[in-house]
Prior knowledge:
Layout: E1 2-6, H1 10-21, E2 25-30, E3 41-45, H2 46-54, H3 58-64, E4 70-74, E5 80-85, E6 93-97, H4 98-106, E7 113-115, E8 119-124, E9 129-133, E10 138-141, E11 143-146, H5 153-158, E12 166-179, H6 181-187, E13 190-196, E14 199-206, E15 210-218, H7 228-236, H8 243-248, E16 257-264, E17 270-271, E18 274-276, H9 279-282, H10 291-308, H11 315-343, H12 348-361, H13 366-373
Parallel strand pairs: 1-2, 1-11, 2-7, 4-13, 11-18
Antiparallel strand pairs: 3-6, 4-5, 8-9, 9-10, 12-15, 12-16, 13-14, 14-15, 17-18
The site of flavin-adenine dinucleotide has 34 residues, from helix 1, strand 2, strand 3, strand 12 and helix 10.
GO molecular function, one term: FAD binding
Domain FAD-binding: 3-159, 264-332
Protein name: 2-polyprenyl-6-methoxyphenol hydroxylase
Amino acid sequence: MKAIVCGAGIAGTALAWHLERAGWDVEMVERAPAFRESGYMIDFYGPGLEAAGRMGLRPRLEEVRHPVHEIGYVDGSGRQTSRLAVKAGFAEVVSLLRGDLARVLAEQVRAPVRYGTTVAAVRQDDEGVEVELTDGTRHEADLLVGADGVHSRVRELVFGPEERFVRYLGHHVAAYVVEDEDLSRRVGARYRMLTVPHLMAGAYAVGENRLALLFLRHEPDPAVPADPAASLREHFGQLGWILPEVLGGCPQPPELYYDQVTQVEAPSWSSGRVVLLGDACQAVSLFAGHGASLAVAAAWVLAGELRAASSGDLSPALDRYAARMRPVVADVQSFGRRFLPWMAPSSRLRITARDWLLRLASLPGADRLFMNSLSPGGHRLIT
Ligand SMILES: Cc1cc2nc3c(=O)[nH]c(=O)nc-3n(C[C@H](O)[C@H](O)[C@H](O)COP(=O)(O)OP(=O)(O)OC[C@H]3O[C@@H](n4cnc5c(N)ncnc54)[C@H](O)[C@@H]3O)c2cc1C
């Protein structure tokens, strides 16, 4: 059996890992010109971490993780307004760069990746699927997997235009990593955030000389600005704390990640021999904080169903995969929409309420309940 996987990100690479071990021949297609190192910090936990453990990836994840010992808020002068210590006994979280998670998965995958290309056309019948790439080559396979993220090209070609599937959550998000030993020491292994109504900026140290930055801004217009770095400087440059310094060196894409915050709700996850995987069909958004975990879990579930399938008709396996994933994804998406008003509060009153909540949550006993409530379901996926 042969699969073409479009998108060599978290979901696509995790699926390639499984399919190769099940004897499939796998080819990957990636739009980026080379392996994507850049990115942002993610908290990896829940079913994805469970799956990664069963895949034998925990030792490598331990090597690349950057533990966070505290989360808290500061004001424009850098003064701390609320904090919560992260302790043993909370739901286990591995904090790491998205690129490092992708690399840990990719290290154990042999499938060739065609960088700098994407899918131009798809034709399929009962016997197989033919994929034409933008580099002019044609490839035949038993299955085409669209693991190409929120703005999936495979989804557009096979299922319809993006606006049918994407729910805009009214915010823009940006992230990048800067090299700065002094700032990294000042912020330390503590996730520090500054919020004013409709804006949030967060930072934490990645090792000894890097700092990961995250920016969130309420914006009714989903269109991404022509100069995202200038837009960040305009909106966040006057807020104080470390922001004028870090924004002075703000890179442009691709080192700067900048996008709309969206969720993806696709009525159908497969059509014949084409299946969607990861953010392409189940994006939960950073408000839910579970996307990478669910991407790795979905690859586990899809691979399991494909292993159990007879070689001819893959449709029942693809249907079972979607039926197992959908309820968990819907739960996490709903959690993300409920969490949204607390991540980038819309008023000073809400910001004060959030600080009080965090102070209450830091009381002994309440801290564990609070932290574990941020980790909705999904463990039952990995059986
Ligand atoms: C700022 C931010 C913070 C986040 N924090 C967390 C967190 O704390 N915890 C968590 O679990 N999740 C988090 N997420 C979500 C998580 O990053 C995603 O859900 C996860 O990366 C999804 O994996 P994926 O493989 O489906 O998509 P991606 O990781 O986006 O990979 C898609 C791949 O497809 C490629 N591609 C795109 N278009 C094409 C095309 N046309 N042709 C070929 N290739 C293409 C891309 O270059 C990429 O390599 C966060 C997301 C953001 C933006």
